[in-house]
Specification:
About 75% of the residues lie in helices and about 0% in strands. The chain has about 230 residues and is mostly helical. The chain has one domain. About 25% of the residues are buried. The C terminus is likely disordered.
Length: about 230
């Protein structure tokens, strides 16, 4: 079935927007205290920081709250009181404020993509070309996840460094693991395991969208004249 130029343009928008929406959904699965606490326990954050599990969870909850909801003060204290000893020094707090800016920027991109995808879905009324477009976007994402995932698996430190070089100013993200709490609360093991889990979630979601999109976008079987003809005796 041929589609009009306007539908073709809308299909391109849907195909481009789909990967952003899938990634955003996957990120939300891990940007929560449940996952963070689970992987911090696996990474022996209590041993690295010298804090009790209760203190680690309280401090991390405060940092996540400032990161997602603001204000971006990141003035978590050891005992949870306003006048307690601050966990993060000025450089660490500044970096976390930069992280929040990056997160909000990426969130805005994802929100725009979600709105565009919803608009195209409504205007297209769920036609087959829409589902084929979302399936195409999901398949592209699958390839991207495999390529990037392999790069992170083989060259994790270099890839992690490149990510920071792209999004943050030089010298603003280097911390001493022996003395600074930010890298003790979120050590390399935490990030490597979270990266693997996130890539797995994105891959599963993308495959599901690709499969169901392709199925819903499939053209109905054409009934041939010969098969539709009833031969009279």
């Amino acid at each position: 079935m041929k589609i009009s130029p306007s539908e073709r343009a809308a299909a391109v928008v849907a195909a481009v927007a789909t990967p952003f929406v899938i990634v955003a959904i996957a990120v939300l699965l891990f940007l929560n205290p449940i996952w963070v606490s689970f992987d911090q326990d696996r990474s022996d954050v209590t041993g690295l920081t010298g804090y009790t599990p209760t203190q680690v969870h309280q401090i991390t909850g405060s940092i996540l709250s400032d990161l997602v909801f603001g204000p971006p003060n990141f003035e978590a204290t050891v005992d949870g009181t306003p006048n307690g000893a601050r966990v993060l020094d000025q450089g660490e707090r500044t970096h976390m404020a930069d992280v929040r800016k990056v997160l909000l920027g990426l969130g805005l991109v994802a929100l725009v993509a979600a709105v565009l995808l919803a608009v195209v879905a409504v205007l297209g009324r769920g036609r087959r070309w829409f589902w084929r477009a979302t399936a195409t976007g999901a398949r592209v994402l699958v390839v991207g996840v495999v390529v990037v995932g392999l790069a992170f698996a083989v060259f994790f430190e270099q890839a992690f460094e490149l990510f920071h070089e792209i999004f943050f100013a030089p010298g603003t993200y280097m911390f001493d693991v022996r003395t600074e709490k930010l890298v003790q609360l979120f050590p390399d093991q935490f990030w490597s395991e979270t990266s693997v889990a996130l890539a797995g979630a994105v891959l599963v979601l993308a495959v599901l969208v690709a499969v169901f999109g392709a199925r819903l976008g499939r053209e109905p079987a054409q009934v041939t004249v010969a098969a539709a003809t009833v031969w009279a005796p």
